[in-house]
Structures are given as C-alpha cells and as structure tokens.
Amino acid sequence: MDTYGLLAVWSGYLFVMMSGDLYDWFDDSFLFHSGEIYFSPLLDLKKKLDGSCVSGNRNGMEKIKCDTEAVDSSIKSIFSERGDVDFAEQLWCKMKCVSSYQELIACFTLVLESRECGEIQPWIHHGSGSLLSKLIQQSYHGKMEAVSLTGITPVQMLLEIGLDKMKKDYVSFFIGQELATLTSLDCFISTSVDLQEQVHCVQKLHHMLEIMVSCTVLLQFKHESLFPWTQICIKYYRENPPDEKHVFQLPVSSALVKKFYPDSHPEVWKVDISSGHGPKEVKTTWQVSTNPPVEHMMSNNTGLLSDSTVNAGIEEKMSFITVVKCSQVHFR
Fold it and tell me: What radius of gyration do the chain's Cα atoms show?
C-alpha cells in the first residue's frame, strides 16, 4: 500500500475511534493488519483505482494498468525527492506500518523518553503543527509537557505527523514545478482546522497532484499548460469539498492534442469555439457522439457525420451531433 493509502487507513481508524467504536479493541491482541481486515472496502476501491479491477478487454486492461503504474511510479518518486525531511517525517515513514496498537504506544514512548533523557537530538521544521513536533520543540527549552499515551492519542499523533509529511511533499512539488505559490496553497496546509478537515485538504492536494502528473506522464503536456490548469483546480478546491468524481474542464489548444488524433477513437468529441470580446463575444459548442441521441436514428442508419475508411472491409463509423449551443442564439 502506498503512503497515501496508508494515511487514508489511519484516518479511518482515528475517526472510527473518535466515535468510540474501537475502544473495546484496545488490548494486546488487537492488530491493525494495515487495514486489510477492517478497511477492506477502502482497499477494494484502491485496487480499482490501481487498475487491477478494471473491466474490458485484455489489451485495454493492460494499457490502463501500465498507465496507472507509470503515474504511481512518478508520484512515488516525487515523495522520495525531498532532502529536508525532519525527524517527525522520518518517524512517520518508519511507524506508518506498525502492526498493533501496543507497538504504536511503545514507539512513541521510546521517542519521548529518549528525547527527555537527551539521548536523541531531533531536528523539527519550524511551524510544524503536530503534537509530537510541539513536544520536541518544548524540549529545546528544557521542559516537555507530559502526555498520556492512551485512548486515541497515539493514533492521533501518528496521523498528525503523516499529514505534516504529505502536506510538505505536495507543497514541495507544486512550488518546485512552479505551478503554485505558498500563498495560494495556504488554505490546504493550515493546522488551525480540525484533523478531519486537514485530511480533506490532503485529499484535495492529492487529487490535484494526480491530475498534473497524469497530464505530464501520459500526455506529455508542458508547464505552459499545467500552470493554468493548477490554478483552475486550486480555485475549485478552495470552495468545494474533495470529490473524485468531479470533472474538471481544462482548456486545451488543438495543437497540443493533435498528435493523439490518429490513434484515438473517443465516443464523444466536444468542441468549444469562442470569438469576439465582451458583449460581442460569441461562444459556440458542438458535441459529436458515436451513440445516437435516439434509437431510431441508428436503425435508419441516419448518421449526421461519416468517418469513412479506405478499406471497404471495415465498417463505416457514423457519428451524431448530440449538442449544439450558441451564446447568441436561444432555442425555445
């Protein structure tokens, strides 16, 4: 399971624990099993996103799996490139796969006792918002607040350092690629909101990262396209909750996608054409589909557009104009 998947599992544990449903499980025999038992629906969804449960023909499945692996590999490399990882972030990388609640307590106990005795001299980023980071920063001044590692506290502490790590990773990517500024990302990395909202913010950052990496890895789009698309995504997610089903309409010039025309056979083509400015601007929308808007058009073989082929043995493709809009023309 990747880092984002593990963070989702730990988030799930915390929020179920906050409801009180997990308190009966806090004993020596309670194992997390990385969420494989208690969070199987989440793992099933993860497998679908990874392409292992994709329906369709074998070639299509292999293509999707290959594309998914390419994007995942690129994202993993992004998360391994930072050189300014502090002690709490390194600790998350070591502790994210702990096997039990008792092991989690033992790890944090060892860290806090070692720091209190001066056996370790950890470095923490200034401004880190996790409880562990605050305790370590307090220790710099000779006194560390006593924390009871019981109930939901250990899981909350682990989730906090995981959120800190991922937020820094995402910010490093967007700023490093010159796709956003720290100011524009402030609303996604704030620690002044509760943990559930912070998890939602990380989900938003992850969605935006997937869009940009997919466009880079699969479509080879450059910075001049990625920058305005990032701003569109940031603007949307400032005002809306995370939504994996949301369809972003990202402006693309015909020159950018021209190389995909010969080998692509989409079921729907949509073209927006704009001319003029201000009150004289005219916007026309055409949508062409291989599926007829009504069944009798197919039975009558009434295609409005034809994609004829040279080879007579190949069936002629029929396309249908399913949407036509013009800003200066109003239909009644």
Answer: 26
Tell me the mean pLDDT in the region 15-31.
55
Euclidean distance between CA atoms 49 and 30, whole angstroms: 29
Q: Quick one: pLDDT at residue 4?
A: 72
What SS3 string covers 144-178? Answer: CCCCCCCCCHHHHHHHHHHHHHHHHHHHHHHHHCC
- Please, is 217 exposed, middle or buried when counting C-beta atoms within 10 Å of its C-beta (0-12, 13-18, 19+)? middle
46-78 pLDDT, tens per residue?
344 344 334 445 555 565 567 677 777 777 777
102 conformational bin, left if phi > 0, alpha if psi -120 to 50, beta if neither? alpha
The answer to whether 169 and 78 have CB atoms below 8 angstroms apart is yes
Greatest mean pLDDT range, 92-96, 162-166, 273-277, 299-303: 162-166
**How far is the CA of 198 from the CAs of 104, 125, 164, 259, in angstroms?**
22, 18, 10, 40
Residue with tokens 């096997």: 99
From residue 70, how far is each of 177, 192, 276 by CA, in Å? 19, 36, 41
Integer Cα distance of 287 and 268 in angstroms: 7
Positive/negative CA dihedral, 18, 21, 22, 26:
positive
- Angle (nearest 5°) at CA 162 between 156 and 168: 135
Q: Pull the structure tokens for residue 327.
A: 């800003």
Paired tokens of 204: 């938003």
| CA dihedral of 83, 85, 87, 91, whole degrees rounded to 10 | -110
Q: How far apart are CA 108 and CA 101, in angstroms?
A: 11
